[in-house]
């Protein structure tokens, strides 16, 4: 998607940040529909501290839901007979074209050419999955498969395509809006699974469950140790003096989706050759791994096995307040994902190097799917100014780019509140 002018591909700029996304969403609703919204859904971004590309290997990860959020102000439209068609209709400040989904939504096996395009795919994908689960009770004459028609306005401070999971925030916000209006309260893991199916089948991104679980399961002040096989979420308290700094390198890459699918296939190939259901089932590479795996699959497997172990080691280090140990593990994770998993990129490597060299930094790594987007650094909260002062010129000197730093707090997952 091409962002409108003046809105640099991403989060609102410094001036706009002064107006919270929740307020902008309400204002946009009034401007678009000429009446007041009744509900506000808030859905956080997430940053993964460690445990990258492990989710689809049934493994472990350690994300944090962060205080950069996507908000939808909304109102059901079957409350007044003249309000319009049976649709879900959503406008976004990021795109002049609204997302409109007719109700009932298309069948789950609708061929791709007959589906929505652009960001409407995420909205439609969620509606399709909700209708397909049959979980929602049929409500109202206009509703399709229990979906209540509504109109909404979306505002977001989550940069798009930066690896902070604006897509999961959008999916979960739409899912929570729909289920809330239908009077249904699915378990967070069910919502996450449904959103993941929407992204896998309707958007065509073969993502694991990390993004959706982190977004819906966020807990203030905590990282989330997620076991992607059992879907168990264990909160890990973040030490008070530790700042989680997200570094948006300003770089974006096309074709990440196909590279992601390649990595997924390579991991599955490695698991098959090693005769385990998933790489998660190995605590170490077998002694004869080099003869059973091609060199690429060997590198992928080596990374995933080490990365799973790092998740527990970082969780333990954070729980005992040992930021230095956690930071060392992040840097080891970066080296593994760069050299063995091969999904880093020049800007991500530059950001990690500049962060590591800056005062107060315990450790840094790329975060998200890879190639471009964001890095994450663990920084001594009392030295944030010195960190920023050293990081920014060092990163620019290496790349010719400006990075945007977000000092983040850990927040609660997707929520809905009545506006009046
Ligand atoms: P990430 O999840 O890392 O941000 P993705 O490529 O998975 O990157 O998802 C980004 C896509 O999600 C955007 O291209 C757009 O289609 C959709 N999206 C996210 N936030 C918004 C928004 N505020 N308005 C419209 N579409 C959005
Ligand atoms: Mg995404």
Automatic annotation (TrEMBL):
The lineage of its organism: Bacteria, Bacillati, Actinomycetota, Actinomycetes, Frankiales. Residues 315-391 form the GHMP kinase C-terminal domain. Belongs to the GHMP kinase family. GalK subfamily. This is Galactokinase. Its EC number is 2.7.1.6. One of its GO terms (cellular component) is cytosol. Residues 154-217 form the GHMP kinase N-terminal domain. Residues 28-76 form the Galactokinase N-terminal domain. It is an enzyme of class 2 (transferase). It comes from the Bacteria. InterPro entries: Galactokinase, GalKase_N, GHMP_kinase_C_dom, GHMP_kinase_C_sf, GHMP_kinase_N_dom, GHMP_knse_ATP-bd_CS, Mevalonate/galactokinase, Ribosomal_Su5_D2-typ_SF. Pfam families: GalKase_gal_bdg (PF10509), GHMP_kinases_C (PF08544), GHMP_kinases_N (PF00288). One of its GO terms (molecular function) is galactokinase activity. Keywords: ATP-binding, Carbohydrate metabolism, Galactose metabolism, Kinase, Magnesium, Metal-binding, Nucleotide-binding, Transferase. One of its GO terms (biological process) is galactose metabolic process.
